[in-house]
Amino acid sequence: MENKGPTVASVITAGLWSENPVLRLLLGMCPTLAVTTAVKPALTMGLSVIFVLICSNIVVSLMRNLLKPHLRILMFTLAIATFVTIADLYLKAFLPEMSATLGPYIPLIIVNCIIICRAEACASKCGLFISIVDALAMGVGFTVVLCILGAIRELLATGMVFDIMIMPKAFVPWAAMRMPVGAFITLGLMLGLVNLVTGKKA
Amino acid sequence: MDKIYILLMAFISIVIVNNLVFTKFLGICPYLGVSGRIDMAFGMGMAVTFVVTLAGTLTWLIDHLVLMRYSLEVTRYICYILVIADAVQLVEMYLRRFFPPLYESFGIFLPLITTNCAILGLCLFINLWGIDNFAEAVVLSFGAGIGFTLAICIMAGIRENLKIADVPEPLRGAPITLITAGILTLAFMGFAGMIK
Amino acid sequence: MLKKVWLYIEQSWLLIVSSFIFGLLIAVTNTAWQPRIEQNKKDKLNNLMNVLIADAEFELAVPDVQVDLGRGKFAKSNVYKAIGPAGSCKGYCFGAEGAGFADKIELVIAVDAAFEKIEGYSVLSSNETPGFGDQIVNDFYRQQFIGAPLGKLNLEKTGDDKKIDDEIVAISGATVSSTAVVNIFNNYLEQMKAKITAEGISADGK
User: Is the pTM of this model over 0.80?
Assistant: First the structure.
């Protein structure tokens, strides 16, 4: 194992909590807000991001010693765009409904800052194994936040989570939760809650 | 006359009714990060407008003249992102060489713009909406930039006032910005239905 | 000169090689999955049309019919013919679009073989306000169109939504979206009728 590089445990905790891409680094906001109308699209989005993140981290990590510095970003972008295209084709072929729901937010993974940030900050410095673990941890951290947000919004907007009725019959759905305003305010309150728990000064 | 009407409607629709920031959640990262001061926000908005007009037009042309003609649609995303990255580079070099004052006012934002989702998002939406009219594509691209500038400037104005407001400790910074943005989207929803 | 070329190659060989590999990767996945993607698109349309006209096979009758949306806007639409088990024509289906409250509304409209009655519609895509405008996908509103006479439809604020006639009762709170759907119907039905009659495939249903 590498001596200077981060350990597996530290990478995992960083991804899941202390450097959680959404809650702490405020990266990848567009998909976080746009696709969390329900759990299912949120989960699909999260899994697509994990796939792209792992693939791009593997590629970048493998060729980290060969890369010329000024061509680095171009290389990252090319790799990311390729894997996003593949993910998009997969969704279109096997989950056409999800693909229609997510629409242009799948190709927008290309400009999701999380991926290029991990390629730059981790994969271009660390070995293959750490890079994969890092991608997995970051991706899972992202997905979990997305799913929680999706669950809250779906529950309040329809009274259901995963098409299972949870709220009592008398519950009046909050249509606003499905609109953009629901996304912004839920995420804002969630960030506030995290700040409260960690006692972080803004 | 009809043509002008369509273009005008397209412009109003992208600036107000389908504003990329408030209805499509695009360009939120700079929206949260930069929009602290109104002059900075305006500079950023202008830079985005510049690049998005160029990128939207170019991607539309490439899409219709090359990709669709030779059915290479599968490489669409790669082409789009490369065009955007190149457009940003070109604009940066051009401005530095020929308009140094302009470069100083918003050149610093240019490298950030490649990963601004508003730009790639707009190119994708133009494709999704099936815009097959060149003039409309240009107007939409330009309007998207103006819409982004509008959103980011409104937000910057509010944030300047938020600094002196008594916000609960945990909500300071990004959370209150998001909540404010949420309330703004409600205001912008009032414009829906304007376009018949 | 040669040295300069060599320098360029040395700088960018990795980029060029990986571009080839990535290109190959995309090409392979694309050829593998493209048939499935096409099939999915067809299935989706077929399913939608099957809900409107049951027990029928659909075949493309007239491709790319141009429809005037007013104000100098045009749209293209494919007309599908529904062929029943006995080989008779059960009706026609076509895509239709128009401006909704926030965005474009795309519908699939079905009419009967003689172009006298509406068989119903499904929403292909819409971006109406959740809780209000998006009720155009609900049965309450859609049922009013099934069996309605093919002619000019009128939108009413109040009335009996169970009665099937040319009066459509609007969804309360979503007048604009309700109007949009009725407008799409009025616009398309008339033009489609003229176009399809002109093609000489209507009336006898053959």
Answer: yes
Residue A81 to residue B170, Cβ atoms within 8 A: no
| Distance separating alpha carbons of residues A75 and A66, to the nearest angstrom | 11
Alpha-carbon distance of C4 to C21, in angstroms, equals: 25
C188 CA: distance to closest CA in chain A (Å): 25
Contacts of C27 in chain A (CB under 8 A): none
Q: Render pLDDT for A122-172 as a digit per residue (tens, 0 to 9).
A: 888 888 888 898 899 999 999 999 999 999 988 888 887 777 777 777 778
Q: What interface predicted TM-score (ipTM) does this complex get?
A: 0.83
Q: C103 at the B interface (CB within 8 A)?
A: yes
d(CA C126, CA A180): 16
pLDDT over 70 at C205, yes or no: no
- Chain centroid to Cα A58, Å, comes to 17
- The CA-to-CA distance between both ends of chain C, in Å, stands at 72
Distance of CA B185 to the CA centre of its chain: 16
Ramachandran class of B133: left when φ > 0, alpha when ψ lies in -120 to 50, beta otherwise? beta
For residues C153 and C181, the answer to whether their CB atoms sit within 8 Å is: no
How many Cβ atoms are within 10 Å of C199's Cβ, its own excluded?
12
Helices (H) and strands (E) in chain C, counts: 3, 7
Cβ atoms of residues B38 and B160 within 8 Å: yes
**How close is the nearest chain A Cα to the Cα of C125, in Å?**
9
Quickly list DSSP for chain A.
--SSSPPHHHHHHIIIIIT-TTTTS---HHHHHHSTTSHHHHHHHHHHHHHHHHHHHHHHHHTTTT--GGGHHHHHHHHHHHHHHHHHHHHHHH-HHHHHHHGGGTGGGGG-HHHHHHIIIIITTS-HHHHHHHHHHHHHHHHHHHHHHHHHHHHHHHSEETTEE-S-TTPPP-GGGGSHHHHHHHHHHHHHHHHHHHT---
Contacts B189 to C, Cβ<8 Å: 129
Min Cα separation C24/chain B (Å):
11
